[in-house]
């Protein structure tokens, strides 16, 4: 009896030793098949705020992506770039940097600040070259945006005339939601359109661009010109400038495509 008990104990110890020896390789295999998803960093543009990304954030989180939505100060391209750079420095691991509208100009400058930025995604975004301003690119669109201006201590702020907000910014969004967006829009300092770009992150970081074919804020042809010049992977959707509100599925699809394919 005693010999049988000792033999069982020896077998159990041997089994535990075998498990211990093989556990590291099992953990490594699991790590190889479940790589960490990059953090998606969302940068809104003028006349919006970070809450405009809410439908997109909901979908990204459901698919397992960590998400951050930056409150873009809209004080000017130079200072906004510095702000986003500091924000990116506080995030660990790989990132996909997403910019809507004027936010596209910001990520074009900020994308070179951190080697962990693995992809740029432009959502109806401005993509300036070095020395080019958002104002110069906006002037290429045939229909100017109806703006109202306000003098403030650090210059001039502009916002979209609320009576024309839906047509200019959110034509495919229901009237109530468009009215809420108009009321909550954040004005932008005119330096956002007069500061020149100083970096071209798309030269070294893979870029994707979603072009909005019903856009009255940045003409689709202007979006195509910028996207082709940047060498971006291009997708198109029939949507207004507020595509992250009206077509969040399309926006999410492009972001996740960039996340999967960027290295």
From TrEMBL:
<dbReference type="GO" id="GO:0003824">
    <property type="term" value="F:catalytic activity"/>
</dbReference>
<dbReference type="InterPro" id="IPR029058">
    <property type="entry name" value="AB_hydrolase_fold"/>
</dbReference>
<feature type="domain" description="AB hydrolase-1">
    <location>
        <begin position="40"/>
        <end position="252"/>
    </location>
</feature>
<keyword id="KW-0732">Signal</keyword>
<protein>
    <submittedName>
        <fullName>Pimeloyl-ACP methyl ester carboxylesterase</fullName>
    </submittedName>
</protein>
<feature type="signal peptide">
    <location>
        <begin position="1"/>
        <end position="29"/>
    </location>
</feature>
<dbReference type="InterPro" id="IPR000073">
    <property type="entry name" value="AB_hydrolase_1"/>
</dbReference>
<dbReference type="Pfam" id="PF12697">
    <property type="entry name" value="Abhydrolase_6"/>
</dbReference>
<dbReference type="InterPro" id="IPR052897">
    <property type="entry name" value="Sec-Metab_Biosynth_Hydrolase"/>
</dbReference>
């Amino acid at each position: 009896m005693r010999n049988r008990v000792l033999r069982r104990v020896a077998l159990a110890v041997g089994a535990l030793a075998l498990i211990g020896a093989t556990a590291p390789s099992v953990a490594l295999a699991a790590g190889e098949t479940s790589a960490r998803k990059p953090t998606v960093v969302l940068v809104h543009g003028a006349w919006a705020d970070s809450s405009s990304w809410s439908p997109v954030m909901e979908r990204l989180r459901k698919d397992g992506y960590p998400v951050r939505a930056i409150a873009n100060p809209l004080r000017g391209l130079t200072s906004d770039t510095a702000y986003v750079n500091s924000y990116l420095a506080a995030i660990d691991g790989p990132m996909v940097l997403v910019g809507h509208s004027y936010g596209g100009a910001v990520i074009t400058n900020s994308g070179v600040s951190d080697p962990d930025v693995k992809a740029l995604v432009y959502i109806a975004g401005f993509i300036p070259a070095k020395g080019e301003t958002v104002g110069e690119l906006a002037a290429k669109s045939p229909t100017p945006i109806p703006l109202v201006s306000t003098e403030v201590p650090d210059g001039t702020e502009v916002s979209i005339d609320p009576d024309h907000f839906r047509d200019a910014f959110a034509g495919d969004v229901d009237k109530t939601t468009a009215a809420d967006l108009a009321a909550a829009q954040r004005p932008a300092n005119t330096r956002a359109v007069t500061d020149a770009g100083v970096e071209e992150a798309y030269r070294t970081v893979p870029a994707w661009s979603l072009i909005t074919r019903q856009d009255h804020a940045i003409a689709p042809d202007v979006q195509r010109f910028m996207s082709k010049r940047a060498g971006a992977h291009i997708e198109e959707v029939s949507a207004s400038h507020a595509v992250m509100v009206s077509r969040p599925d399309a926006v999410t699809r492009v972001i996740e495509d960039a996340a999967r394919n960027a290295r």
